[in-house]
Amino acid sequence: MSDSAEKPIINLKYREMKSISFLVVFFILAMVGFFACQKDDLGILGPSTLGVKIEALNKSYSLPITGTATKTALAGATSIEWDSAHFIVSNIKFEAELKSLVTHRDSIEIIYKWTGPQMANLLKPDASFGNFLLQPGIYDEIEITVRGEKKDTGDVPVFYLHGTYTRSKATLPVEVIVNEDVTLKTEKDSVEIKEESIAVTSYIQLYLDELIKKIDPADLDNSKLTNGVIVISKDSNRDIYYTIFHNLAKDRPCYYEHKYKKYIKDKKNKGDDD
């Protein structure tokens, strides 16, 4: 009798242990799901990326352009103001030496390439090109080369500016049309990526006033007009054109912006950062 009386107690304890084990497993799975959802809600989007934007600065300035005053250019009595600036991006090449965050050594050469073509609005640099994947590390000797190639543009100029030239209270429309291959190049010593989910943007800066360096206002005053427009191209006002083309080919300054790839889930489609 005593043996038969103990069996139900043993079975009961077994069922209780089984129930507790089930609850523990359920709780662990629930917590895993919870943190997974939290991670998704915080917008942890995976590896870090680097995108390239090209921005035109100083769209209004006085003439002539002299010295280093170009960075604070202002429009005066004789001036130019640009209202359109476009560049066809055919391809981008990103080169760097990657070093370990731990050892700061073990350098390997990284080369990425993005291929378009795609038009960049330089006065409203919303589009980001490249979006190269970056693993955490120290990126040294960074070199970014942006190419605009005539073979990709069809009837559209590789590089185009439109604006107005003002002199002695008279205003004339002016266009710069480049139908040749153009290379924009920039370099930076080092960029450090400490973790994943970082969106890095390299802003290549094109100072529009620097394009007019070494051009005398008298050259514009005496320029040939095409239907009332100062057209500066390989076929019109050639001396001015080649000065601008030479200035365009110079290396460009840049700066880098870092942002966490976080977003509020219900705003994901709006493209909000942070």
Q: Which descriptors would you attach to this protein?
A:
single chain, alpha+beta, nine-stranded mixed beta sheet, 21% helix, 43% strand, elongated, disordered N terminus, disordered C terminus
What is Rg? 30 Å
For the record, give the distance between the C-alpha atoms at the N and C termini, rounded to a whole number: 71 Å
| SSE ordering | HEEEEEEEEEEHEEHE
Helical stretch tally: 3
Classify the helix fraction into a percent range: 10-25%
Overall shape: it is elongated
Q: How many E-type strands?
A: 13
Q: How much strand?
A: 35-45%
Overall structural class, as computed from helix and strand content, comes to alpha+beta
Low-confidence stretches: 1-10, 22-43, 263-274
Average pLDDT for all residues = 81
Largest sheet: 9 strands, mixed
Give the domain tally: 2
Task: Give an overview of the whole structure.
The chain contains three helices and 13 strands, in the order H-E-E-E-E-E-E-E-E-E-E-H-E-E-H-E. Strand 11 (225-226) and strand 12 form a beta hairpin. The termini are far apart. The strands form two sheets. Strands 2, 3, 4, 6, 7, 8, 9, 11 and 12 form a nine-stranded mixed β-sheet that branches. Strands 5-1-10-13 form a four-stranded mixed β-sheet, with no helix packed on it. It is of the alpha+beta class and 274 residues long. It has helices spanning 2-42, 217-221, 238-248, and strands at residues 48-57, 60-62, 79-99, 108-121, 129-134, 137-148, 159-167, 170-178, 182-193, 198-207, 225-226, 229-232, 254-260.
